[in-house]
Write a structure and sequence with these properties.
Layout: H1 2-7, E1 11-13, H2 20-24, E2 28-38, E3 41-51, H3 60-83
Antiparallel strand pairs: 1-2, 2-3
Length: about 80
């Protein structure tokens, strides 16, 4: 997650391969972290993991959908900050 925030680039690890996160939570089979970018500024990251009961692959369409969702969340966060 920190790498995603620092670089502003998405991170897809499907399936998880022996990371510390995997060892502590052995029921997850995959992890996706997508930066919440708004006008060149990273506001956070969208992190999604899923259990080993689901197929440990992600299609290009699913990646595109998650990146679009992250864009919508980033816009909403920015608007909330302005309102605040």
């Amino acid at each position: 997650m920190l790498r995603v925030i620092a670089t502003g680039s998405p991170y897809f690890e499907v399936p998880l391969a022996g990371t510390v996160f995997q060892q502590e939570h052995d029921k997850l089979s995959a992890l996706v972290c997508i930066p919440l970018n708004f006008r060149g500024r990273v506001l956070g990251s969208l992190n999604i993991g899923w259990p080993s009961t689901r197929q440990a692959t992600i299609s290009r369409d699913e990646r595109n959908l998650l990146e679009s969702l992250a864009d919508e969340i980033a816009t909403s966060l920015h608007r909330a900050q302005l309102y605040e």
